[in-house]
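Side project, low priority. Logging it here so it doesn't get lost.
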Amino acid sequence: MASNRTVKELAKYVSQEYGGITPSTGTPYPCTQQQIDTYTMTPYCDQGNGNIMPEYDAICMLQAFLNPNVLPTPEVTAALHRIAYGMSIKDNWYPDIVIKAMHDIDTAFFMGLLRGSVRIQWVDRSRIIEEYGPHCASHLGITQYIHTGCTSILLNLQPILGDMRSPRQRMWQCLFHELIHAFSLRVCPHTLGGTAYDRSKGPGWQGGHGYMFRTCLLAIEERTKRYFDGFCIATPEDTDDYRSLN
């Protein structure tokens, strides 16, 4: 196990009981309170953050932005270095780190398109069960469609932080996974049936991971592996499915 701390200890600095997430508490990461609030408290934009487009155009746009043969802008490079620092913290980290890094992750991987379009929250497993049914109790995260271009991401405390192999790695993998869902729904909300939780499909139903999801994952993972010491955002259990792009 990567940490001997309990889930309760790890979750301390994402709890309102301890004042919520602030730059001066929890895991050290260079960010502002406004950047934290943008992904946790700021009201949604009316129609998400920008225009809607066909899946093919969205995939090409993201692939061009992440093109490994093109040097990132200074802004993106700086964001990548800060994320690399955050991911390198192996001791005294808390789950607030993924929220604090969101502004940089959005900048470095999603062109800043998620600002005003996604809200992220760590929640207890009991809330997942209450809102989405017992079949979702072990889900690491759930991306919920709110309205055109906007989503809510719930990160499930117990299964992520209770992972016996590497809760820190599982946390980062889950965040990227759910952000790909959020990105897909931000630019292509017509993909709802295949990318996000949909109550109309019945309790516990989670959308599939179609061509757009898998293609975006591979493009993003190429950058994470290059800048974050070979880090793979697909879990070992998921790898076969995500790499089959037939």
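Brief comment: The two ends are 36 Å apart (CA to CA).
Revisit when time allows.
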